[in-house]
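User: Could you check the structure of this?
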Amino acid sequence: MQRECPNCHLPLNAPAMNCPRCGYPLQSSSASGHITPGPGKPINAAGNFSPRPFTPSQSPNSASGGRGNRYTPLIITIVVCTLLLISVALTALYFFVLKENKSCVSAFDDYIDEENVSVSARLAVTEAECPIHLATSKYGTYYASNLIDGNPATCWSYTATDVSGDTKGVQGPVMTVIADRIDNIHIWNGYQKSNSIFYKNMRARGITIYNADGSPYGAPRSEDILYTGDLADVWGMQTLRVRPQYRQRRGPQHIGILLDSDAFSHYKGSKYTDLCISEIEFYGEQH
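Assistant: Sure, the predicted structure tokens are below.
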């Protein structure tokens, strides 16, 4: 007599502890081949076991105690590997884009430096002259050449009450500047030998810096004016921007200083009536 599984009715050709199809536990008798339920299986009122219904979707794993899907570890591995590959690809893309961006910025900087912008440099000033100045004393000299000696502790100075300017102002020093373009002017107002001496002497306020080659002496035209306005009453260097209306010239040129002569054009000193300017520098392009 051929045996079969009492649950799924699979014919059984050999003794087995479990059904190879549904995994149902079997216990066979050695004599008759009758299959009896395994230990702990339910018995109905007729004394027979109650088999669990079998469906084709069942697998031996799911029917034998609810063990997890055997494909779960494989699925997890595939997902993890996919995420790693995406991370590597995004990282590589980031560094590629960053490198290209840096290359573009570098190329742009080179283009700006070489094609569009001339670096502003300190211009050579060969001489500075002015007939108005204080006499030499035990404290030093006060010639116009002190304006271009690179030392703010010296100054050009004159006694403001001894000089009466006309409506054009007081003509100050005239300097010879070698330039193809002038962009900025650095000036140290007052006597910058020390902070206390700075406030003891008068400081310039209203000032005009102009090109003396293109204008009559002390009467500059608008196109020849590099800067006109008030200086700040501050210790240290201050920067004056050259007016865009100024007509640039190439080569050696004479740059003059014109000081306002009215009573409100100076910052008063606490002790002296000597007006002082310590240093002046010109910046721009020079070949």
